[in-house]
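Check out one such.
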Amino acid sequence: MVLGTSSGAGKSLMTAALCRVLRRRGEQPLPFKGQNMSLNAWVDPQGGEMAYSQALQAWAAGLEPRVAMNPVLLKPRGDSTSEVIHLGRSVGTARAEHYYRDWFRPGWAAIRTGLAELQAAHPGGRLVLEGAGSPVEVNLQARDLTNLRLAQYLRARCLLVADIERGGVFAQIVGTLALLRPVERPLIGGLLINRFRGRRSLFDAGRDWLEQRTGLPVLGVMPWLDELFPPEDSLALLERGSRKPRAELDLVVVRLPSLSNFSDLDPLEAEPSVRLRWQRPGEPLEQPDAVILPGSKQTLRDLASLRSSGMAEQLRAYVARGGQVFALCGGLQMLGQELHDPEGLEGGRPGERASGLGLLPLRTVFQGDKALRQRRSRALWPPGPGGLPVVEGFELHHGRSERTDPAGCAPLAQDGALGWWADSGGQGGLVAGTYLHGIFENGPWRRRWLNQLRRRRQLPPLEENQPHHGRQRDALLDRLADAFEAHIDLAPLLAPGPPPRTPAA
């Protein structure tokens, strides 16, 4: 089990690295996080919803992502409530102050079911567990679902990860160990120092001190990795910055207050010729090559934020000047003319109606049942040489959209419900959007979309015969595993012999 001294310590990527290393050694790692709180989701082949970080770990392990790997998913709604998802299906809404009272037993049952399904599907596999936040939040320990209760239940050997970049790494580690209960302390098998900059020899004295003080081996010091990996949460986007000062295209992504599924933009982050700028509503828009309006967990609330901040008017003026807007899922719904929320699902009052940005002739009605499915179609837009590129991804949304003026916009794909586009006329502005999460992962389509932007700038076209982004992601995971194997000694954790004996949870 990979535990962290805090949220953001690097547990998710270290778990992914461990999965890839074990796979290389001939084992079948089984990634598992009992409970995750995230708005960055994935939909598995059976139409179940799970956290993207567990999907990434599944790919590292050479497996198809399955909801059994993340049986409890909490999706914050921004009002001290979260949507609760058990084994891929929404089962209700919980208030923060009542969650452990009302949802502990059902959550623990879902976790045990997920474990059983995962192990039954892969007999002989080795579970690689990821914790959540800190394992020693003393006000929550009695009802902890996904850290040491799970470690005790499975008698797992635990690796404790601390982020030295944040400072205070000695206090992080010593404080965490001091707050463990006596039955939990034997579970910790080693320490990992993450995100170290500079010469590792400078940490030798610190390493010795930690081992003497704690009695635990420091199994390794991971360097700062100058790679772009999917962030664990949306706050990490603010830390990524631009590493491409010579990029030819300037794209703005509107950082909505309830931004979701931000990993949709990772393939664009990886394009050498593209600079992505994440911009909050209300900041001056100027004249980028395109604006991307991403997904939202609270579409009506985020739409209100665009209006109150002046960003809605900025977007309309930008299109009128000839700008391009591309929207994903909730962003697509905002582009329309009218949004109706009969059940109050998207941040509005039950029965609320709201005017959209008016950039596409669409009407959206939010319904209780979610569209949760993987999809595949051929793209009709943008035009380009050769045939129609295949686009595949998944749908994850409440709303159903229909055109109020069929002549006012055209289908983006042969499956006419996946998205629409329209030329705004006048100065050449263009507006398009799709319900298909993962559309930018499709290399030929992504390059075709970038090339129509490049033509407007009179830039030479990029090669469109590109592989799926999954291949590039797989290469990044290999490089992560290379670094992990070079700097981490796993022998104490993987040595044969009985795990520590602790009372079963």
Summary: The CA atoms of residues 294 and 328 lie 5 Å apart. The mean pLDDT is 92.
